[in-house]
Amino acid sequence: MSPIWDLANPQLRDLAVYEPGKPIEETARELGIDPGQIIKLASNENPLGPSPKAIEALRAGVGTAQLYPDGGAFYLREALAARLKLARENIILGNGSNEIIEFLGHAFLRAGDNVITSQHAFIAYKLIAKLFGAETIETPSPDYQYHLEAIVDAITAKTRLIFIANPNNPTGTLVGQKAIDDFMSKLPDGVVAVFDEAYFEFLDHPPDTLRYVREGRNVVVLRTFSKIHGLASLRVGYGMAPRPLIDVLQKTRQPFNVSGLGQTAALAALADTAHQTESKRVVDEGRVYFEKELKDLKVNFVPGTGNFVMVEVGDGAAIFKQLLTLRIIVRPLKGYQLAAWIRISIGTMEQNRQCIAALKKVLPAVRSI
């Protein structure tokens, strides 16, 4: 009998597995402590939790959990369309926005094609490209920014998708409106541009990419309920694009891909603007605190615009392990070609203070090695 890998699609053999932030429960088991004693600042989650209105809606919805969800998510798509001044037909839902990235692969990628993104971009783009046998072209980012002019220069006859995370994870940097407009003026008709805006709601002055959806360009804009809305466990993301592009993506979507409870909670969370405002205030306050403390520590960091900060610590893996012993989980970034860096999610002010106190303890020891 042939080894199973000889039967599997060849691109799977060397496909890296996405490594999420270390779970609280796993860390608690390893340390032999209660999960409540651990601070997780690794996955850019909302430290305030979900909207109280979303929690109430979830409790009310559990009683109908035996029913299949609305496969078309009519009410949630209608609410999003009203909020965004689009038509319902311009919106597709995913089991997290990552699933919509996979839809794009199913729809547009064949073996030998390529996708383009920036060095240090969200790693899911590269993994999805590999899954479909496509090559990933990463343009240089010596300053941790996207350089859209370099992306335009990298386009070939085999380019199908361009991924622009804005703000980018894990660097936190933002591409402004002028650079986006210049880029879109040069985008060939046969290429789809994907603007991944998972952290859109944390921005003070967000660029407008939906204008290109309304103009009918080959553009997909991705957003999520996992970040500011605090519903990461329920996996609800959404994509916006011109109707013909959405029609193509809908062909790749499995029925009932977003749970009924997820739709119910997302609909309630979307309406709770007070919770969104408070979540942004907590992040803004925490970002200012981290930046001040890191400057005082003379630690290099990238000024960011999301709910996290990328910090240069010399040996990210070592600092990660040292912080674990102090019951704090952060994200090492070796997989992003950033072995000297960690990413710290912004938590409550008490969590932020404990993280800085822990950094003050572990940084001198690692720096002395």
Write a brief caption for the model:
The protein is α/β, with parallel strands linked by helices and 369 residues long. The protein has helices at 4-7, 24-31, 52-61, 74-84, 97-108, 124-131, 148-154, 177-186, 210-214, 243-250, 260-271, 273-296, 316-325, 349-367, and strands spanning 39-40, 91-94, 114-118, 135-139, 159-165, 192-196, 219-224, 237-240, 301-302, 308-312, 328-329, 331-333, 338-345.
Give a verbal description of the structure.
This protein is an alpha/beta fold. The chain has 2 domains: 4-49 and 274-367, Aspartate Aminotransferase, domain 1; 52-272, Type I PLP-dependent aspartate aminotransferase-like (Major domain) (Aspartate Aminotransferase, domain 2, 3-Layer(aba) Sandwich), CATH 3.40.640. Helix content is 40%, strand content 16%. The protein contains 14 helices and 13 strands. The strands form 3 sheets. It has a 7-stranded mixed beta sheet with strand order 2-8-7-6-5-3-4, with helices on both faces. Strand 12 (331-333) and strand 13 (338-345) form a beta hairpin. It is globular.
